[in-house]
Amino acid sequence: MADYEGTDFRGKHFDWVEFGGARLTSCSLSDTYIDNTDLHRVTMKGVELYDVTIEGDVERVFVNGVDIAPLVEAELDRREPLRAKMRPDDPDGYREAWEVLDGLWQGTMRRARALPPEALHESVDGEWSFVETLRHLAFASDSWVGRAILGDPSPWHPLDLPWDQMPDTPGVPRDREARPTLDEALEVRERSRQLVARYLADLTPEQLAADTTPVEGPGWPEARSYPVAQCLRIVLNEEWCHRLYAERDLAVLEQRQTAGGSG
Q1: pLDDT of residue 263
Q2: Which of 2, 91, 118, 215 could bond to 203 as cystine, CB 3.0-4.6 Å?
């Protein structure tokens, strides 16, 4: 017998709920919002998927017997030819990827500076503001290079910003209400960018193939060993993806300014 049968959960909010092993039959998930959720090894049969948006990591996703992940990857690379450089396999490739990101972000920064300062604190569709994005990227670099690779147990600046769903962790900053200026946020970000650049400058094949030494004490990432290449790939992915998100949201902010000015 079903645990919940004929139950109306419309409008309910499920947070930190474990659905592993659950079975959903004859259910409606229309207009459902799913965020930061593990959907590993999910099987859906007899479903109807219309007007669906999926953003995230896609691997081994079969639709009607076809693994769509390689198709998605190929299309994303076609749209953004430089994207392939974010998958390097040697030190020179990582250094080149970092230079590519630097050039791309310079263009994004010019676009951001053309907007009024207050617009850079505005959210688009509930996402981080531009300034918050810069703060989060500082957190990512400090965490995966400063802490995981270089062994600093507490590498963060007070303005670093973890992802929203991260539990409060002793010693890890998460001041969501801070409103630093763009230049203040850029100073924090530049500090972390230089940390990564200095490490990559002297990166050797042996270091790239090694694992990190676990860091003692609470923080992020958790205190265990990680492949150095994995840590660096995470940083590249954060930088690449969040710039695209920022460009997407800057377009909306520009439209808002145009609409406001035309009135």
Answers
A1: 47
A2: 91
